[in-house]
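Aim 2 progress. For NrtR DNA-binding winged helix domain-containing protein, the working sequence is reproduced below.
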Amino acid sequence: MRVAVHRLRSLHERTPDPFGLLPDEFSLRQLRELHEIVSGENLQADTFRRTMLPLLAPTGRALTQGRGRPAQTFIRRSELALRSDGEGDQGRET
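Predicted structure tokens for this construct:
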């Protein structure tokens, strides 16, 4: 059982929603809440955002989640898009 929980948590550390538990479009807050449930701990919002944004594509739409301004929605980027972005960065110096 411990191995299964460890594998589940490891997958969620590297990918936004590996099992498709969220709808196709989701907010970062929804994604962070899912990751907090899986990890069993509170996650720092800024760090989570920086980690997940390269794995997501903005939809250009917003979602109203209670009070405050509407939240931007995202979709999961495809593996192909992630690979092609990584290849383009190899020749650049940072």
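Residues 5 and 86 are 30 Å apart (CA to CA). This observation will guide construct design in the next reporting period.
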